[in-house]
Specification:
Length: 103
C-alpha cells in the first residue's frame, strides 16, 4: 500500500518528466542508430569500427539506459516501451542493406 495517498498503480511522482526523458533518449536512439550504422557501412576500413560502435551504442545502449531510468522511477509503461526499441536495429539494418545493394 502507498503511504502518501497516491494511487497504488502510479509509483512515480512525476510520470510526465520520466516519459519526457525516455522520449528524448528514444529520439536519440532512433536517429543516431541508423546514422552511425549507415556511416559505418559507407566508411573506409579504418573508420568503420568507430561508426559501428556509435550505431550499436545508440541503437542498443540508449534503450537499455531509458529502460533503467524508467524502472528506477517506477514507470513500467515507459520501461516497456524503451525495451521495445531493442527491435529498432532490425528495422533499420534491413532497409539500409537493401538500399545499398539496389535490390
Amino acid at each position: 500500500m502507498v503511504d502518501n495517498g497516491n494511487r497504488p498503480d502510479r509509483n512515480t511522482r512525476h510520470p510526465t518528466g520520466i516519459r519526457v526523458v525516455t522520449g528524448v533518449i528514444a529520439t536519440a536512439c532512433i536517429t543516431l542508430g541508423p546514422l552511425g550504422y549507415l556511416n559505418g557501412v559507407m566508411a573506409t576500413t579504418t573508420r568503420a569500427a568507430e561508426w559501428y560502435t556509435l550505431g550499436f551504442g545508440a541503437a542498443v545502449g540508449l534503450p537499455l539506459l531509458a529502460a533503467a531510468i524508467a524502472t528506477v522511477a517506477g514507470d513500467r509503461r515507459a520501461a516497456l516501451w524503451s525495451l521495445a526499441l531493442l527491435a529498432w536495429p532490425v528495422v533499420f539494418i534491413i532497409p539500409i542493406h537493401l538500399l545499398l545493394t539496389g535490390a
